[in-house]
Amino acid sequence: MDAPPKPWPTGLAEQCEPLVRRVLAPNASPYTYTGTQTYLVGAGQDVAVIDPGPAGGGVAGHADTNGSGHVEAILAAVGEARIAAILCTHTHRDHSPAAAVLKARTGAPIIGCAPLSMDDDGPRADAAFDPDYSPDRVLEDGERLGGSDWTIEAVATPGHTSNHLCYGLVESGALFTGDHVMAWSTSVVSPPDGDMSAYMASLQKLYDREDRVLYPAHGPAIDKPRQLVRGMLGHRRQREAQILRLLGDRPQAITDMVPVMYKGLDPRLTGAAGRSVLAHLIDLRHQGRVASEGELWSIPA
């Protein structure tokens, strides 16, 4: 999906529904679409902040033209309300670093996903893990957190990262999906932390739910959740079948498969596509359906 024409509503508080507003961070990139969307939940005396975003621009190697601007925009949107909780869906650094800044400014606790710090050997330099993320409380699957007029339930959705959580808003049937489900792009699943088997299981978990609307961290809201998730499950199964067909012809390296599988792909995303192919291959190897030797992958004899 192409990005909408500018100007984008960067820094503005947009009303999504009575209990939900969003504020767009200034960190647009080929991986983040128009930027990370921070959600404010609650219309009363206290609010929850979901995915506070980057502390700076959020993209490695890019000058930050509005470093503290996003935190200031969040605080302006919060106004006189109290921030009761700062929640992160996961700890890629386009999602979680501003949590520490918000906590320092407001005293609000950081609650939600577990910490995870590791070297990312993939191409997503803009999505390296946040090594400084330090939650005051980790939410388990199904655990709830409440405010003056809102209740949030944690939904464990590992796959994109092992610590990924979605958050359900009990009062309205909305689900905040982070990077797990997006309408503009499929999620990158990058080993070693990204796990395709876990990702598929998490997609099935969302398909089995009855959420009214999905609010991803990047891109537009999704008002037909089960239809989109069904399509995502089918898309991943098609990729798996495509890999098996290619390897049925001859042993191949990932660099051989990506140009065939992703025709017309933005060259800047070639590395990320290769990581997702690798995630599929690892899953297929666990199933005994493919084998590897060096960089070559093949169908076992």
UniProtKB/TrEMBL annotation:
Highest taxon above the source species: Bacteria
SUPFAM superfamilies assigned: Metallo-hydrolase/oxidoreductase
Pfam families: Lactamase_B, WHD_BLACT
Domain Metallo-beta-lactamase: 35-218
SMART domains reported in the protein's UniProt record: Lactamase_B (SM00849)
PANTHER family named in the record: ENDORIBONUCLEASE LACTB2 (PTHR23131:SF0)
Protein name listed in UniProt: MBL fold metallo-hydrolase
